[in-house]
Amino acid sequence: MQTKFLFLIMAILVVFGCEKLDDNEVSTETSIDTEITTSDGNGEIITLESKTLGTLAYERINGQNILEGDIILTDEQVNAFKNADVEDNVSKSAPGIIFKQWPNSRVNYWIETSNAETRDNIYWVVRYLEDKTNLDFIERRSGNYIAFVESNGCSSFLGMIGGRQEIKINSEFCKSGTILHELLHALGIFHEQSRPDRNQYININYSNIRPGFEHNFTTQFTRNYGPFDFGSIMIYNPCNFSISSSFPFDDCTSDKATITRKNGSLYPVNESYLSYIDRNALLDMYPKDVRSAPTGALDIGANDRGDWVYTRKNGRYIEAVKHNRVILRYRESNSNTSIDITQYGQMIFSGETFTYGSGRYSRHTIVDISEGGGNIYGVARNGNSHKLFKKEGNNWIFVQRLTSNYGRARVSVDGYGRPWTIINNQINGWVYGQPKIIQKPKGFDQNFWSFYDIACSGNSEIFVSMKRSRRTSSTLFRFSIRHSILVQQPPINAKQFDVGGSNGTIWY
């Protein structure tokens, strides 16, 4: 599937906050190079061209922005595209991004159609997604929720828009597969054929498209997530909007198709289930569980046995707390607030001082510490540099130099015992057993965004927070091992965090 993610639309269909810009940030009034408005007799067709962001073509009908036939964009989302930053430049940025995923992987919904078959189909889709992903669906008509309503077509908003939002269903044509497709739009997932590299994999046969519907094939701006997925439930039927074939497209052939493979052949149509990549996308977007540590926690540690610990300040002392009980109290210093808990339930702390090398800068102090897979690693500071060490018995063994300045360095150890570090605004990690350098994600690569903390949950669940300068909030990402990409998570309000083992629980 492809940027199927609302966050990966990269300030295109994201919603911008109204916070004051930092001193080193400069807003832009528009990112649009060309805006063209035409009419197809039903409404206005508006095409927005941006050299940086791509192309957005939608239809304005009865006050609604209809994208690619079944996606409803809010005016705020359209304006976000128009006003997005035009350069990946350290001197410019869009205002603060509000990421519209469903918090805590929970979605409220309410069924308002009385059609018995449609109601059964909705319940099946909800149970199917709960079984295949980390999402929980709660039948509740309050707060932010999805209302399934009867209509003459099938459509959905993109991502969570706040309050009541509708998924429109035509009970005659919209069966379980279509409902699943529309619900994925509401979760922030986009059409596969709109990814920017689509022309490497498919042909758009404009001569076969019904006149007036060409704009449904124009939009290209989402980023790539994994390989092009012909099996995705989010890709158009090859004969969608065909001039010579109509729903349910039983007579679709390659000479009638609007979309074909590069060799001109049709691709199988999935109208029933999540593909492997579809499912991975949802797993990467929505974590299993997110829990808040008590206010004032300085650092958090957890293991896959369900143990969790944190440090907090109490006057001139630091308190180590396990399961809400104070276990240890000690005098505060500049380096002894980091904590973790091993798989055997032993608490480990930063602050240990030792000698490595000789001369003026031989004295080293552990300022961050982590355990995983039976291995303990620590980040040590001496002077203005950081180094990574591994604990063997009572000794710290040098592994590598991390930084040569006063920049931030953090470490977390995965279930295989391998260290993941944050250094100089990059992550040093592992992908399929090989070292991997991970840079800041697109849209968060300006100077005022920086990696803040990193945590490993089990063998392959890696989470990292990014902090914006002069702000107290942070943004949480999960690193997708499958596709080597940082995937933004539902919003949190935290400076740092750690996660608990293979169950995927995130403590922050």
From TrEMBL:
Co-factor note (free text): Binds 1 zinc ion per subunit.
Entry-linked PROSITE patterns: ASTACIN (PS51864), PROKAR_LIPOPROTEIN (PS51257)
Active site (record annotation): E182
Keywords (A to Z) from UniProt: Hydrolase, Metal-binding, Metalloprotease, Protease, Zinc
A Pfam family reported for this protein in Swiss-Prot or TrEMBL: Astacin
GO molecular function annotation: metalloendopeptidase activity; zinc ion binding
Cofactor annotation: Zn(2+)
Domain Peptidase M12A, chain residue ranges per copy: 89-288
Name under which the protein is recorded: Peptidase M12A domain-containing protein
Organism: Aquimarina mytili
